Amino acid sequence: MMGASRIALVLSLMLPAGAAGAQEIERNLAGSAQLDYLAVPTTPNARGFAFDGFTTELALKLAVDFSSHVSANVKICYGCHGFETDMAFVDIRLADELNVRVGRINPQFGDFPLRHDPANHKASDKPLPYDMGRMLHRPEWNMSILPAPYVDNGAELSGTHWFGSDVQLDYAAYAVSGFKGSSGGFDLDFVQSRSGSLYYVDNNSEPALGGRLALTANFGDSANATLGFSAMWGHYDPERKLAYAIGGTDLFLRLGPLNVHAEYLIRRTEFGVGPDPTKQFRYEFDPKRNFFIKDGFYVEGEVPLGAALEAFARFDGMRRTGNVPASSPLRSTSAILRTTVGINYLIERGLRVKLSGEYWDFSDFPDEVAVHLGIVANF
Amino acid sequence: LTTELSTPRAATTWRGVLLWLLALAGAGCALGAVGPRGGLSDEQVRTFPVRVADAYSVFSRKCSRCHSLARPLSAQVKDIEHWREYVARMRRQPGSGISPEDGEEILVFLKYYIDNRSGIEDKAPPAVEGSSSAAVERPAPAEPVGPKDGR
Prior knowledge:
A: 4 helices, B: 7 helices
């Protein structure tokens, strides 16, 4: 009886929306495309450790507002790994304070994923903690902490509440399939996690859980700030023995024309020890240390220089601490620091050129210089 | 670092980058006007009624938080009710900083923009009394955009 009354309540909330939706359905198609060329002048042939040369990223998104309470989004992306479904979800909004999102979603985590589309950020590549395949020495590092965009099947409850007109509180909690990996694996397997070859289904009959909390404050017309905290937890192996936990904090500041983004992410990942741990690892195996820590940060500032030119600078880094497989070139503590400076030149409103130079400082490999030249359009 | 960059491969890369930039800068000069963060140019905004110019200021500050202003300005949305749904969805994005009052201000600008888009984009925007382009007839100011009944 209690359940029936709840269903009736939800239906009653949906009915006006359904009536409006029958009259008119609003659709909008948007997208972006980026062609980028990555050159590594300090190494004659960088293909061994990076996707240098041309890469293309394409996104097409259809947003449909059935009513003020129900909307749907489908976004298809094309990148180095071919076509992927970045979004395919329905939002059911009961109030600003309660939104239910179900389908293939981008679970809320941090600041950068909100602007992960290449048309929405100034650099050609992503900050190191969120890198998805463009970093140098990608295979050795097995990519980043949380490659963006993180896409998964599941449901998310979220909401936003304003205290007056200057303070906004955002919150979200979700259950998703979670990252995948092999039995007794060393790390998350990002190919398994997004590949359709293993079906887009859970691999261990257990959801991963996560959430985010963020506070935004406006300080007059020209300044505002957002401070957020995010967390995620789950098992990645089929037997549910190997856990991962990701935490993060993010800060956004706008001071007049200057935008500053800063984030710190940390992931604790358990690994399988195998039948003979003495041969499997590069360093002596400590049964109490069957995990590694990967953490990283970035600070990025951007400012318009006149109407058609925008400049940005980014300093980011990533560190891995813990035992490594015997064949790994990494040490028990390995780190990367990267400094990036660049400009965006707006040829016209929806078309910009991105040029940036990067200095990579590796603890385990020779330092490198990289240059990105890209062109990105949004429509 | 200096030694590494003086190799023939590096020199070729930098020359290529420079040529690209020069070509694109030339293309940019030949194409249309653009304002900061992919928005409207100062010349375009100066022709707006004061109320709309104020609303554009809110629009440009709030809507460039997560994306270029080219996104909304290029969107093929021609109906203010559609924009109302869209702005509400954006307002609910985490950290948007768009309060319900800001949302109404943004709609004031968008209403004016969809009503006068071709004039604005053709760089022959409607003149405002006292502006230098007074030869162009001024359109009726945008109607205030109030909340929909029942919301």
